[in-house]
Design brief:
About 70% of the residues lie in helices and about 0% in strands. The protein has nine helices and no strands. Helix 2 packs across helix 3. The chain has two domains: about 1-85, RNA polymerase sigma factor, region 2, helix turn helix motif (Rna Polymerase Sigma Factor, Chain: A), CATH 1.10.1740; about 100-174, Orthogonal Bundle (Arc Repressor Mutant, subunit A), CATH 1.10.10. The N and C termini lie far apart (about 65 Å). By secondary structure, the chain is mostly helical.
């Protein structure tokens, strides 16, 4: 049987992780248009360096490329304060048969958590997104971020405390 082409290998290994790549880029850049640009550039880089990937976790490999692409992009495009609010109705999952009151409460909780997560410093937001939203292991996060596992654990603990405090503060303001 013939060896798959680079394009076939790329499609099989990398394309299934497009949503995770966009999710990470969206949370890092906090802007849909920038996230799309970052993911596009990351996918080009991933394709270019696919020959250097010799197995392992393709998702973690891709997310490391997305993360590095974001930091490269950010050095060329310093933050100017503009952000786009994350729309839970557009980006989240919904259930059609839930009680309207429960849906309203859940939407308000999601709005508070989303707003609080967006307000966290980048290093904390990054590890929370990778762990809680992308369900990556500490080892995978450490490899993606290029830090020791102990650093991942301490950042996650601190990020969770900061997130909880931010949610409480936002809830009091409402």
């Amino acid at each position: 049987m013939a060896e798959p082409s680079q394009a076939e290998r790329f499609e099989r290994m990398v394309f299934p992780h497009l949503d995770a790549a966009y999710n990470l880029a969206r949370w890092l850049a906090r802007n849909d248009d920038d996230a799309r640009d970052i993911v596009q550039e990351a996918y080009l880089r991933a394709f270019r360096f696919l020959a250097g990937f010799h197995g392992g976790d393709a998702r973690a490999w891709l997310l490391a490329i997305v993360r590095n692409t974001y930091y490269s992009w950010r050095s060329r495009n310093p933050p100017d304060g503009r952000t786009e609010e994350f729309d839970e109705a557009q980006h989240g999952e919904s259930a059609e048969h839930d009680d309207p009151a429960q849906l309203l409460l859940r939407a308000e909780d999601a709005r508070l958590v989303t707003q609080a997560l967006a307000a966290l410093p980048l290093a904390y937001r990054e590890v929370l997104v990778l762990r809680e939203l992308e369900d990556l292991s500490y080892r995978q996060i450490a490899a993606i971020a290029g830090v020791p596992i102990g650093t991942v654990m301490s950042r996650l603990a601190r990020a969770r405390r900061l997130l909880a405090a931010e949610v409480r503060q936002l809830a009091q303001e409402d």
